[in-house]
Amino acid sequence: MELEIKPEFEKRYKEILGDEYEELEKVLKSRIPKSFRINTLKISKKEILPRLKEKGWKLKQIPWVGNGYWIDVPTEFLTKTIEYYLGYYYIQEAASMIPPLILEPKPGEIILDLFAAPGSKTTQIAEMMKNSGVVIANDYKLKRIKALATNVQRFGAMNCVITYCDARDFWKFGLKFDKILFDVSCSGSGSIVTTWRIMKEWSLQRIKMMSKYQKILLASAVKCLNKDGILVYSTCSMEPEENEENIDFAVKILGLSVEKIKVKNLKYRNGLLEFEGKKFDESVANAIRIFPHDNLTEGFFICKLRK
Amino acid sequence: MQASEIKFFSRKEKNRIEKIIEKNYCAKLDLSNVILAKTSNEKVWVLSKEVGKLDISKLKVINVGLYLGRLKANEKILLSIEGCQLVGRQARRNIAILNETEAEKFIQGQDVEVEKSVDCKERNFVLVKYKEDFLGAGKFVNNKVENLVSKSRRLLLCE
Q1: How far is B135 from B146, CA to CA, in rounded Å?
Q2: CB contacts < 8 Å between A and B, how many?
Q3: Inter-chain CB proximity A161 and B50 less than 8 Å
């Protein structure tokens, strides 16, 4: 079976990437390696690495995350080991490990993860906080919350409170945060490389609809942010409407400012300043976009906003 | 779960849990840097101190912190996998040690034969151990362990 790329998708990404488009298409049609993160709340790297190598696994360090590794085995093998059962590692896509790095959670802080399920970034944040402070891990899909709860438990996190609330209404509880992870639902076009089915669902109409909904969610989330607080906006979408256009909205309508992001050992590009005739605020360039062919990961967009 | 259903433990109640763990597993668990809470069905949770300082009363809470285990009759506690991992490091009693074959069966949810028992009391809850890992809890009956790990955590191992 081969991935069938939609003509509208091809047209759009040829416009964004120019000659580089062929590289994107080549990677989308291939398979990228699986990745996982060692759970240092339960075990040290020194203890777990020899055990995994004994299984014949060839591990490659993910250069931007100290306890992240690539591995070339199918997911079904990764989830059927005693170490997985014990919560010694967490399967997570390599690019998805970046938003928590930008959020920089510190021990003792109180953080809101507004779209937390299934818990990859939540557990990463809990770990970075060394099991102290609080992560309010919220979601609105009960089925996904079940997975979130299982993952948080397996991870051994003591600092998570899992809540069930429509993100549009969270501000009504009156809680305010210094840091919010806003990893919003999106069209998922950055995940086509791992889930080809998404290409079938890809349409401009869906992207526009998502973009509109994301703005509503963003405006609500900002109400939960303290003055000077940080909101990290991220999507696994490559679409400017779901990314730069929403950041432009955050700057011009919600009054947030965009902070410069630096991630060592990661190839990325600046946010676009113009797309299909729409011009975005200059500060949008401080956001980062990652294409699948940049680092052999899913595509991602990340922006650090300050209130 | 409504936040109102979460009952944070007093110092006295926390001491009781420490004593139950000490009595059953001869383990001194240091709970000084965490708080404990109880929800329905006698479930006990371990939380970071900061959770207790936050007003979560209006939130629709699904879970708080780490599920340690469930209190049972006669001052006993059935520990979760994570509860066993926390307690296991200090435990000196009620430990059932498995060989590789039985450990693989255990994580798939089966009852298992014990290779070596460390002060295991008949019909008591025990910590199940393989090499350095604590795999969960079970009931020690006739040199066997009845598997008490929740179904959602069981695995099918690869060949």
Answers
A1: 13
A2: 105
A3: no
DSSP three-state, residue A246: helix
Closest CA to A121 of A37, A216, A64: A37
- Greatest CA separation found in chain B? 50
- Among B82, B49, B106, B53, which Cα is nearest to A123's? B82
Residue type, B24: N
The answer to whether residue B87 neighbours chain A at the CB level (below 8 Å) is: no
Instruction: Give the total residue count for chain A.
Output: 307
Q: Is the peptide bond before A99 cis (omega within 30 degrees of 0)?
A: no
Low-confidence ranges of chain B (pLDDT < 70): 1-4, 157-159
Cross-chain residue pair A133–B66, CB shorter than 8 Å: no
Q: What b-and-e string marks burial along B133-147, b requiring 16 or more CB atoms within 10 Å of the CB?
A: bbbbbbbbeeeebbb
What CA–CA distance (Å, rounded) separates A153 from A194? 26
Chain A contact for B64, CB < 8 A? yes
The token pair at A162 is 């899992």
Q: Give ipTM to 2 decimals.
A: 0.95
> Above 80 in pLDDT, residue A16?
yes
**Residues on A contacting B at a C-beta cutoff of 8 Å:** 42, 76-77, 79-82, 84-87, 108, 110, 131-134, 136, 145, 149-150, 152-154, 156-165, 173-175
- Chain B residues within 8 A of A43 when measuring between CB atoms: none
Q: Which domains occur in chain B, in start order? A: 1-92 (3.10.450.720), 93-151 (2.30.130.10)
Q: Which residue matches tokens 């179904």?
A: B151
Q: How far apart are CA B33 and CA B10, in angstroms?
A: 14
Task: Please judge whether B59 and A152 are an interchain contact, meaning their C-beta atoms are less than 8 angstroms apart.
Answer: no
pLDDT of res. B5: 82
Count of residues in chain B? 159
- C-alpha distance from B34 to closest chain A C-alpha (Å): 9
Q: Which residue of A has its CA nearest to B154?
A: A85
User: Rounded distance, CA B144 to CA B29, Å?
Assistant: 27
> Is the pLDDT confidence value at A172 over 90?
yes
